[in-house]
Amino acid sequence: MDAPEPEQTPFAAVSAQTSRFTRQYQAYLDKSTPYTTYRWIGTGVLLLAFLVRIVIVQGWYIVCYSLGIYLLNLFLAFLQPKFEPSLTQDEGIEDGSLPTKADEEFRPFIRRLPEFKFWYSATRAIAIGFVCTWFELFNVPVFWPVLVIYWIILFCLTMRRQIQHMIKYRYVPFTFGKARYNSRSGH
């Protein structure tokens, strides 16, 4: 009379499958971490496919502009230090304590947005933008040259401000690998 209860409810089955797919996806992301060059080449190819799609269909300029603004925002976060130098200098002044660091002391550069998160967010945004170009809902009519000029002006102003900030606080956000020394230096 009483039917045996199923061992697993449909919600639990869906939850288990989702959890399994999430773990597999994270495993693929973890495996791709050391392959920085190949990851960025793939992202570049995806961006190129997106731009070719925009040029061929001659539409979805607002999607392209929005993607450009988002990628610029990500790039700026990638260039900025995690801890604002002006705030750390102000804290030393407010404490009333004596300075403990010389101006030329080495301070490691820690990014506000790490490279992997920058790559992941950029790739995901480009993929979402590419998908948006297949729906007429996102094809808002707009005069695209205005968007291009506005984006170029915005890029120039923000990069100028960022470069001035880098010069003022003397930090370089780019590293070109570990320094290599000759083993035949006479030792």
Shape: extended
Number of E-state strands: 0
What does the main sheet amount to? Answer: none
Order of helices and strands: HHHHHH
* Quaternary: single chain
Task: Explain this structure.
- By secondary structure, the protein is an all-alpha fold.
- The protein has a domain at 36-81 and 110-171.
- It is built from 6 helices and no strands.
- The chain has helices spanning 10-32, 36-57, 61-79, 85-95, 115-132, 144-169.
- Helix 3 runs parallel beside helix 6 (144-169).
- InterPro entries: Rer1.
- This is Protein RER1.
Notable traits:
single chain, 187 residues, mainly alpha
In brief:
Involved in the retrieval of endoplasmic reticulum membrane proteins from the early Golgi compartment. With 187 residues, the chain is mainly alpha-helical. It has six helices and no strands.
Write the layout of secondary structure elements.
Blueprint: H1 10-32, H2 36-57, H3 61-79, H4 85-95, H5 115-132, H6 144-169
Family: Belongs to the RER1 family.
Transmembrane segments: 37-54, 60-79, 142-160
Membrane topology: Multi-pass membrane protein
